[in-house]
Amino acid sequence: MELMDNIKSRQIFRAAEIAIEEGNFLAEISEGWSKVRQVVHMRKGLSPLAKQRIESELPSLRYWYSPRTPHNPATEGFISDTDEVGLSFPEITAL
After folding, report:
1. What whole-number distance in Å separates Cα of residue 42 and Cα of residue 90?
2. Which of 61, 74, 63, 72 is nearest to 9 (CA)?
């Protein structure tokens, strides 16, 4: 949980907790992005149950999806526009 303590958004912290409860793992936290202050990266894809729980419990978070490019894998996740903190998952089909 030590790495979790560095998350700068209470909403994203809870969303990461839900993903962990559903069997995922925190991979890393990165900062210095142009449109957000911080991105919390999960190791495994976003399960349908975790997505449903996050959307139900944290309706203020905005879901996003980014398709694969030649240089980056497909990703999806949630963002707290208020806190400028994102939560990122590799797309399950991209694994």
Report:
1. 8
2. 61
Residue with tokens 């912290």: 13
Residue type at 90 in one-letter notation: P
- C-alpha distances (whole Å) from 43 to each of 13, 36, 56 are 15, 20, 22
Kindly calculate the radius of gyration of the chain based on its CA atoms and give it in whole angstroms: 12
User: What span, in angstroms and rounded, lies between the C-alpha atoms of 87 and 16?
Assistant: 7
Model pTM?
0.90
Give the pLDDT of residue 91: 86
Angle between helices 10-21 and 48-57 in degrees, nearest 10 = 150
Q: Are 43 and 30 in contact (CB under 8 A)?
A: no
The string of pLDDT tens digits covering residues 34-92 is 889 999 999 999 999 999 999 999 999 999 999 999 988 899 999 999 999 999 999 87
Strand partners, 65: 76
